[in-house]
Amino acid sequence: MTEKTTKTRTIDTEEFIKTVYRLHKEKFYEQRFTFLLGAGASVSSGIPTAGKLAEKWLKEIHNERVPEADNTPLCEEWVHEHLGIESFDPENLAQHYSDIYDCHFGVHHEQGYAALEAAMESAYPSIGYAILAQFLEETKHNVVITTNFDHLTEAALAIYTNTWPQICGHESLTNLTKPKEKRPLIAKIHHDLFLSPKSDSEKVQKLSEPWKKILRSIFTRFTPIVIGYGGNDRGLMDFLNELAQTDIHGGIYWCYRKEDGKPREDICALVEKHEGCFVETHDFDYLMFCLGTQFGFGSPHNEIHEKNQKRADVFREQFNKIQEQSNLLQDKDPQDTALQNAVKENIQRTTGWWHWELLVQQEQNPDKKDALYQQGLKEFPNSPELNVNYALFFRDVHKNYDKAEEHYKRALEIQPDNADLNRRYAIFLHNIRKNIDEAKKHYQKALEIEPENVTLNNNYATFLIIFRKNYKKAEEYYKKALKIQPDNANLNSNYAIFLTNIRKNYNKAEIHYKKTLEIEPDGANSNGAYAVFLKNIRKDYDKAEQYYKKALESEPDHANNNCNYANFLAEIRKDYGKAEEYYKKALEIEPDAADLNGNCAKSLLSQGRLEEAQERVSKAWQHCSDEGQEQLGAELSFYEVVLARLEGKPEEETIALGKLKFLFTEGFERSPWDLSGVLDRMRAEGVSEEEMEFYETLAAAVSDETQVDKLEEFSKWQEVEPVPVS
Questions:
Q1: Pairing relationship of beta strands 185-188 and 166-168 according to DSSP bridges
Q2: Cα–Cα distance measured from residue 104 to residue 98, given in angstroms and rounded to the nearest whole number
Q3: CA atoms of 357 and 362, how far apart (whole Å)
Q4: What pLDDT is stored for residue 29 in this prediction?
Q5: Count of H helices and E strands in the chain?
Q6: To the nearest 10°, the Cα dihedral for 612, 618, 620, 623?
Q7: If you average pLDDT over every residue of the chain, what do you get?
Q8: Are 583 and 563 in contact, with CB atoms under 8 Å apart?
């Protein structure tokens, strides 16, 4: 290869990456880069170079045109004589790619497209593309210009990031395309694989005017970094030569492989003209990995795992909804079996652990469910999914916590570094075992594995509030999660509730309630939470009722929303009959929910239905076992005080007052709670105003910690000894 001595500098990889990073960080100089990629960038992803494809096709042409008996070798003379390729260089087949393509496929373009598609069929983005995807998503250097037809760049973005690019794969789209600050652009100047890719010599010899227009626009703002491009198509090379030195912002960085030596003379002249420099490096992956490391990009391993897990989880969730729909249709119209049959057929086709999980979900009988889990684990003993689901089955259905823990631990033995398994086990430890310290260890391990996991940060914040009363740290985790995923509805809702109940920052809380509604305008949780806020804090009852109704329209079988609307009807509208309908519906959905039974007890007590109220209080106590339900325990104890007073049972009243004294001494977080209906009932039952002063102060202390000290003014309270609540 003839080389020409030029004034163009050649730098090594280290100097290049430091230079690019310095310019990237420059405060007073706007420097943006575009990646100009050729076929060499795709080799490690499993796509042959232009030279390799040309070699393959040339051999096929020779085999087809030379009779078996003829021993004429494939040589320069044969190529010149039979294919008419001038100045044939067997050492650089890439520069003859288009001519060889023409000779092999001629006018049969569909055959040529099929050959290209076959060559790219098994390609998968290499680590270099993983780094490139991070550049496109996270930096201002978000434009790729490529002579390649493949989908490696957009595939890398789909696999490794959460960003969707603009793709201009044909000159007819150029008028609709322009670089944007927050959206990557991929410009395929030889077209996309599925949009008549240009491989024949006539089409690649000249760049069309629409392409020239958009490339001029890009080069005035972006400095090209050329990687894996050999300059073998005249169209792009001629265009680059046409440009004046001032037409390319910041010159050109032309990267070449050290193993291949300096590029051709015409490339040297081009780089010199544009006052660029050469970068002596190795392959695409090597260069991108070094550059990505300089920019602080890490391995996207966790992100890939999280995305794949989320995709699988979303699909399973959607399939479960289809199953539920099938079950509802079966109940309403037994003759409509199309969906039911389709679900059964899909379950039979499903393989792996999920096949067994679907069979379990279809079964109603707990013993048969148990048998299916055992069969599934016999076939897939090392499935963490089946083990953890079996643990949930033991926990929720059999209430066999020892067996549940056995399977939690088995799942963690199989995958000790699975963040979600550690999270699930942490929940079991604090809710069931009351082992707060161990739960904290598993939360922290999960966060070490996936520090950016929004669900984990959200859950740990809630844990810190309930079990550690560490509000400062909890808020840090809420804010961290919101920075990662500001449009997460559940997260905004939880933070709004935290701001309401803990920080008492109602204006800021309302901002997050409204943000939740922007994200999920029809969400049952978002509308229900805002309705509670409007009722308790803003006292805007008409508006609150609108949101309660909207929440129930969205999800009629939402237990908490049915219960909260019942509270609203009883406390604000004093419509106890209608409230009872919603309480009953809530308890049909979740008959063992402690808070629902407690709320129903309050309504019954307000109506003077003492015996029924006592039944609900007793049932609520049976299920009020979780730490963090201290306020509910205080409310239930207050109802017991009132019931005992109205029924003339002073000993039972003293015990209930002792429970309240214990809970007040221990301390707990309070949220607004309206006990006025219960107090009104006491007056209606003939309790004197002198006595009522004590009960009103007691009710205020249930909802407001600052009122507790006022109880010391009453001898009735002074005489009470604390009674521990287990």
A1: parallel
A2: 10
A3: 9
A4: 75
A5: 35, 8
A6: -150
A7: 87
A8: yes
pLDDT digits (tens, 9 = 90+) for 97-112: 677 767 776 667 677 6
CB atoms within 10 A of CB 84: 11
Claim: this prediction has a pTM higher than 0.85: no
Low-confidence stretches of the chain (pLDDT < 70) are 1-6, 28, 50, 67-77, 79-82, 84, 92, 94-97, 101, 105-107, 109, 112-113, 116-117, 119-120, 180-181, 193-204, 302, 331, 625-628, 726
Q: Give the largest CA-CA distance in the chain.
A: 121
Residue 488 in tokens: 């997460």
Residues, the chain? 726
Spatial separation of the C-alpha atoms in residues 504 and 525, rounded to whole Å = 21
Cα dihedral 116/122/123/126 (nearest 10): -160
C-alpha to C-alpha distance for 88 and 111, rounded to whole angstroms: 25
For residue 535, CA distances in Å to 255, 578, 581, 680 come to 65, 18, 20, 20
CA nearest neighbour of 141 among 4, 245, 39, 17: 17
- Helix runs in 121-276, H state only: 127-138, 152-160, 201-204, 209-219, 234-242, 265-273
Q: Which amino acid is at 156?
A: A
Q: Which residue has the tokens 């030279």?
A: 51
| pLDDT value for 81 | 64
